[in-house]
Amino acid sequence: MEPQLSLFYGLSTLTAAIAFAFAVYLYMWVKRQPQENKTIEEVAALIRDGANTFMTREYKILAVFAAAAAALIFVFLPAPLWKGSFVSNIAMVLSYLAGAVLSAIAGKIGVLVASLSNGRSAEAAQHGIKPAFLIGFRGGAVMGLLVVGCSLLGVAAVLMAVGDASILLGFSFGASSLALFAKAGGGIFTKTADVSADLTGKVELGIPEDDPRNPAVIADNVGDNVGDVAGMGADLFDSNVAAMTSALVIAQSLAGDFNNVSMVFCYALLGLLASILGIATARIGKNGSPTKALNSSTYVTTGIFMALTAIATAVFEGFSWRIWGASTTGLLVGVIIGLTTDYFTDDTMPIVHKVAHASKSGPAFTILSGVSYGFISSMPAMVGIAVSALVAYKLCAPMGDGYAIFGISMAAVGMLSIVGMIISNDAYGPIVDNARGLAEMGGLGEETIRIADELDSAGNTVKAVTKGFSIGAAGLTVISLLGAFMSEVNVALAAKGMAPITGFDLMDPNVFFGIMIGASIPAVFSAMLILGVDKNAQRMVAEIHRQFDTIVGLREGVPGVKPEYGKCIDIAAAGALKELIPAGLMSIIATVVVGFIGGPRAVGGFLLGNIVSGLLLALFMSNAGGLWDNSKKYVEAGNEGGKGSEAHKAAVIGDTVGDPFKDTAGPSINTQITVVSLVASLLSSLFVSFSLFM
Amino acid sequence: MEPQLSLFYGLSTLTAAIAFAFAVYLYMWVKRQPQENKTIEEVAALIRDGANTFMTREYKILAVFAAAAAALIFVFLPAPLWKGSFVSNIAMVLSYLAGAVLSAIAGKIGVLVASLSNGRSAEAAQHGIKPAFLIGFRGGAVMGLLVVGCSLLGVAAVLMAVGDASILLGFSFGASSLALFAKAGGGIFTKTADVSADLTGKVELGIPEDDPRNPAVIADNVGDNVGDVAGMGADLFDSNVAAMTSALVIAQSLAGDFNNVSMVFCYALLGLLASILGIATARIGKNGSPTKALNSSTYVTTGIFMALTAIATAVFEGFSWRIWGASTTGLLVGVIIGLTTDYFTDDTMPIVHKVAHASKSGPAFTILSGVSYGFISSMPAMVGIAVSALVAYKLCAPMGDGYAIFGISMAAVGMLSIVGMIISNDAYGPIVDNARGLAEMGGLGEETIRIADELDSAGNTVKAVTKGFSIGAAGLTVISLLGAFMSEVNVALAAKGMAPITGFDLMDPNVFFGIMIGASIPAVFSAMLILGVDKNAQRMVAEIHRQFDTIVGLREGVPGVKPEYGKCIDIAAAGALKELIPAGLMSIIATVVVGFIGGPRAVGGFLLGNIVSGLLLALFMSNAGGLWDNSKKYVEAGNEGGKGSEAHKAAVIGDTVGDPFKDTAGPSINTQITVVSLVASLLSSLFVSFSLFM
User: Fold this and answer.
1) pTM
2) B165 — contact with chain A (CB < 8 Å)?
């Protein structure tokens, strides 16, 4: 059958519509579930309001940033305005704004639904694991469906409207700008609140983790939502859009009889369809394991996607089996990366036990062993990404010039195809985490808390896997963005009548110069975020002390006396965004400086250095953080001395170090790399025209 | 004046002879200094014997390793024996053995002199800072002179004998093999002893650091000598030889009217001459600052070298000013890297104060702030290396094909030119560190200990600078080794009648595959060393417990009852070498596997990934370690609560984490990169002949 691009535009829109309809159905279903406990309802409302406070503030700052970026884009991109590019510059601006706004909408609704689900899941846990699991899972699935639906619809709409995939770079940059704020800003917010609540509550006053007297307690719960739901959703929206964008930019530059653009949309929409089927069929037995339920729905989705794309390849002319092979390799490698991550961070596996055991010799050994295994854990994923890129390239190279890089971009699309499912599993985590806290605050009894605990622990296990998965996907995506950057540079060179570049040679000093500087950016970026958490936490601790000193009766827990939760949320939110901006600007400015010094080849090196050291550090920090977290839990479960022992104290220190590693810096590096890659592609023609050493 | 290569061979031999004669003079001078205190003499002898125990054991294992490597070299390198390359294979074997043996001799004598100087310096401190400083400095200078003299003489001798610089790769590999054992093995040894002594002595028993009852105390002092004197010397011997080798390999491949080979020897011998003059003129006033004395002699050496090379460039025909510019740039960047390192680790600078302040919030914040500033500190050096490579390349590219890379290799030679001075300063550190301990054990009184403390603290400050310097030099060296690797590959390709490769393109999937895997090696290597320290310390702690349990009167300090120091030294030595070997083999095997999978282009990528992530991690770990160490000292000096405060406890934990970072893993990465680069060059013809995806 001869595929028509218009058919796939239509099918993409239809699939997105199905996803939205299904999301609305799930939203209604969640809302219908009973919420009767007054305390839970009240606290849940506080959390919801807090999340809104942060997001409103974030979106306001983002609006200023976006307006400035839009103005710059209007003047300079894709070409300087004075070269008569008015219409395409307007298109780029609109595309940019659409990317940011769609991602923002998905995030906002996702957080809303998550914050409706947590209390209901807590109450449902009174009736067993099954109903509580379903509410948590379906609440998270709304986010997954919205994110993937919005990204597919947005990309299709932009390309239908303008026809030129390079305008999609603007859409993708809009999505990345938002992701930078949501992921890194949310990451600083959540850890500020977490650290401050622990330091003042657990350490200074000796009150329990979720004690309502603590002014930071609501901010802490808000953090789970804005960091793990909104931030993670924006991050994967960004990765998904970037993967499709780079595949489409490369697809449009290819010659040959293959229907490359159609194929990209076909794979993306089948991925969404597979996720919808996976979500719809997710089930858990009455006393089943939630971890198994979550993982098996991931495998079901993977299987459905592979089958559907195989059918499409058989049915449509000009769909290549080689591309199918590349995409399937990407997906399978994604699963393998997830499993190796699990080996290093799961508390039933030996590594967690070793770190817990090392804690017996004191906190220095907790840190040293965690750092060491964190370093080692980066290797399998690095090798996995390298192998999938190599296989995809070799499979697709025989199809013709440029197809090899297209193969890599389709491996990234493959790895991200089931992203709807991944997000659902990921958003499930903070919902049931909140549910656990609410069950405690609402006094729902021990059995309910035990069930909530089991759900929460499944969330943590699955999170490690999805995090490894998303870093792997980001790795392949940015490699294909490097390909997209080269295409853009060659378009700019051709416009000036210059010969195209064929690659970036390591022995070229401009490239090497870029590599060295690019490699140091993720390290500096991470450091700035971690120091940001630290500074912000100091402000918040001062505010908490002020409240305990000035609000009469708060410390003693006099009934009716409440802390000013909102002030803490305000401080965390304002500080998070204030600390984030220098880190983001540093990355962008470094790209521009390298480009104007060394030209496009230096930027190519810069992107590579950034990718390689970024992946290494992201894997190291995410895995080490997860490892310390689970080692602490393992000790708390009664091993190596149990709660209150010296080993436990050491494990807590490890966990505190790991928190900003795994929830602030590690996962933000993805976004930093994507932002920088897109800035490079967008500015490619400027680098071609103006550079010191080109 | 027309330069003759034979003239420079002659002058190199002469300069080396002067260096040896001067070293003998200094050795005699040190030996003539009075050593009267019996306790000091006794303990110094124990330390000397312990160092001998370790080095003998190390050299025995190394002999086995070297024999195996020599056999493999004989059969395969530079070409398989069955291709009739008997003579050149024998030359390669001899060259390999010469590299290992010369480095071993320099290390052995250096440690001997250091262990004669420590007690004498302690006693001299009774008469003031001036005589004590001179003994420490001159004792260290023997090592500096021997290392540089041996490397210059060795390289000149091999090239005179065989004429083909590629045989020097064998010499360089011999030096690297030894450096791997000396630096990484010594690093594990020294931290094993340090950690075990602290854990059992300070923590469990509450006895002072250098209490003679502790069975690990001698091992701890031995560690300073084998790690910081022998290890550091072997490391810089290795870097220096590698820099000269790669410059010579590239020089021989160049066409044109330049006297490139002569120029390499000229620069190297003038560097040694400048170091001799710098050492001879090093002075300190009666109450002068030892830090200033050490640094000013470095600057004097730098100035002399620049002047002498300028004169040589003016005098000799075919010596290019462009090369002089490249070399001078390298040297100046080396100094700048040293100064930025100082900013991040010196306790008079703000960063150390910030980390000390963070310690007030607990150990997690000590770690987080140290990791953050460690990450940030890597950037200036990365940028410095990138800029010096870019400038050297651009300066020398107009000279003709291949000169650009030659320029980079001469920047490395320039950066390493003053290595004799650097080693002298570096070896000074452990001598005066030991002197401080001996002054305490020998009961030389408070004023003497204060003077010894001042000398020790200068050693720590200067060490940070020299460490930054040597990492920078290693960076440029390995870049030029990448150039040497490409030359070797092209020789192999030409021999098979195939077209040469012109570079390593990032977009080539074989190259990318190599980069990703290469980048993960230093992380895994570091982790294996750190875990090795941990395992080894556990063995040693068990032995210390055994001694306290079974030796009657030891715990109580009954006069005449002594611990079995030797057993601890044995355990540290055996364990260090046992833990090191898997890490070294892992790096070498990974190189071979990547080469046989992806061919020479994959290996090129592998080397680059290894260099970039290796430099990043080495800078991070060395600087973070130095930062934690000095923050602890800053707190101990009475700041942020002083000794015994919570901040102090936190700072001690930071220091314990930093110890294996800065003294085991960080500085061993240099050697790991060099070893891997040389293995790649040596095996280049095999990778050309046999690979899966080439």
Assistant:
1) 0.91
2) no
